[in-house]
Amino acid sequence: LIVLSVLWGGAFFFAGVAVRELPPLTVVLARVALAAVTLLPVFLYFGHALPRTLHGWLPFFGMGLLNNVLPFGFIFAGQTFITVGLSSIINAMTPLFTVLVMAAFREERLTWNRLIGVILGLVGVAILRGIDTTAGLGQTIGILLCMAGALSYGFAGLWGRRNLAGVPPTKSATCQLIASTTIMLVVVTIIDQPWTLPLPSQAAIGSIIALAVFGTALAYIVFFEILVRAGASNVMLVTLLIPVTALVLGNVFLGEVIRLNEIAGALTIGIGLAFIDGRLLRLGRTKLN
Prior knowledge:
The longest helix has 29 residues, at 202-230. The protein is mostly helical. The chain has helices at 2-18, 24-45, 54-78, 84-91, 94-104, 112-129, 136-163, 169-191, 202-230, 232-235, 238-254, 260-277, 279-288. The protein has 13 helices and no strands.
């Protein structure tokens, strides 16, 4: 879990470096394309085969859109307005949005502890925004964009449950990244036209490579390994650890100030996640009994 939190927390940092020089959508394309190329040898090693029909590709295009294209696009765009650390804290709301999406589509019940967790998460966001009148509209836009990314991850969870059940993790990850690359090639060609952009610095290029190889491809492998060994509830605990890595990296290397309201908001969201996870409540009941 610690390794995974460093990989995904580092992803926020590397993306924050890259979007200082390149448009967010171009960074998304580079991330998914390089990650797909990195995972493809692993995909072939396990003997998987690419779908041969459009119908076979549709589940992966849906997952690629909801789990890569939209959330990466929203979060990277948000990072042009807010800090690396703050964007990672907002991303920690992913399980909260997942609970709401699953309940809305009757996949899971919205229990009292989950409802309390969602409310605490929203309170945490309000604390993050604070009452600082000097922050301006940009911070609000950045927070909302990152929240949209977290919401998209929630819908990705629903899509995966309904359309990718039983698909081997390596095949799911690789095929959705290939699908995401196809989508982003069209979008970036029309909107960004990257061949017209100035050549980025070595720091930006290195950040994109690290973002794709470590923050995406390797992170997927570690994530699914933990998922198989420890289960979904345990692997989602990484959500509590990611902001720690992102906050530290942003502070040390980018000079981002860690504010008191960010710490308070992160702790509030973390308590909300603990309510959704449920194990603290079960532990408390066990001790009382």
